[in-house]
Amino acid sequence: MTPAARLQAAIEILDFTQAGAPAEQVLTNWARAHRFAGSGDRAAIRDLVYDALRCRGSFAALGGGAGGRALMLGALRARGEDPAALFDGARHAPAPLTEAEVAALAAPAPPAEALARADWPAWLLAPLEDSLGAAAAAAVLAQMRARAPVFLRVNLAQISRTAAIAALAAEGIEAVPVALAGSALEVRAGARKIAGCAAYRDGLVELQDAASQAVAETLPLAPGARVLDYCAGGGGKALALAARAPAAQISAHDIDAGRMRDLPERAARAGARIKVLRPGQPGGPYDLVVVDAPCSGSGTWRRTPEAKWRLTPARLAELTALQREILTAAVALVAPGGTLAYMTCSLLRAENDAQADWIAQETGWPVVARRALSPLEGADGFYCAQLRRPA
């Protein structure tokens, strides 16, 4: 496909997403209907679509509208390219520019700071600044417009980080160590080969953001400790903890059992012993209860940009209420002298410190550690507070 044909495909896909269809679903449907498109074409189109979702506000400002066509015009303008060179009406290319589009593209571009702010929900700008401070928030807004790095967690119970790098390199995947976490690698080239490589199939590496790994490394894990990943989802935290402490007794629980469907297979691949519990039957007590709570996901919006445009004040209020409900239930599962670790992948104070302070006040348990990571440190935004139950 030509670059112009890829643009036209992205325009069509974006128009479907604006009608409410999830981007991944539309991309899959498009690929099935256009089997002539090679893997390189599909990857390039996906990048165009996700770049536009990340930068929807600024591309709309630069392109003169909110539709797929205007977003692609804005994307070209943001890259310093001439839209007329690709919007020429040739076969499979977008139609030529209209007079209105020519006028919109000739208008002065907004300042860089205004463009970055346009790519964040307007109602969340003040909460972000309140959470991070004005200067850090401005830097985060700029950072969130870029694609997120791809990180791997090395299963250190099975292989060293150096050996994992070599194994990946043998299959054309370039990865380098990350200072943020002792198990983390950043993939610099060959990311699309990961799912098919031997190191991944054999459980030597897993896809996991470096911030999540960094927080997991701070959790107290004594030999033989009883550990519960209470909101386990796919089980990434449980797997990371099992790699750190193979002798620990690790259980995984989620109110939606379907989310843990692949965990037994992943655990077997990694050589990890993880007990998968039935929903609503978490057992206990535990020396460590990990609550990776449902949240806005604002720290991960580089990866899931649709989510930021779908979040509403009402939904955020629902999430904060749910977080308190989950924390209240989790408290009863912590053994005397044990630790409750509350985590989110949010940047917002309302989901982070405010919730940790609330449960500390409700229980009288001290907060013994806090860690807040932002995209400025290279990975996703992530938060963890550890509370200690008195012995």
Automatic annotation (TrEMBL):
The keyword Protease does not apply. It comes from the Bacteria. S-adenosyl-L-methionine binds at residues 254, 292. Residues 140-391 form the SAM-dependent MTase RsmB/NOP-type domain. One of its GO terms (biological process) is RNA methylation. It holds the Pfam family Methyltr_RsmB-F. Keywords: Methyltransferase, RNA-binding, S-adenosyl-L-methionine, Transferase. The active site is at residue 345. PROSITE patterns: SAM_MT_RSMB_NOP. InterPro entries: MeTrfase_RsmB-F_NOP2_cat (IPR049560), MeTrfase_RsmB-F_NOP2_dom (IPR001678), RCMT (IPR023267), RsmB-like_ferredoxin (IPR054728), SAM-dependent_MTases_sf (IPR029063). Belongs to the class I-like SAM-binding methyltransferase superfamily. RsmB/NOP family. This is SAM-dependent methyltransferase.
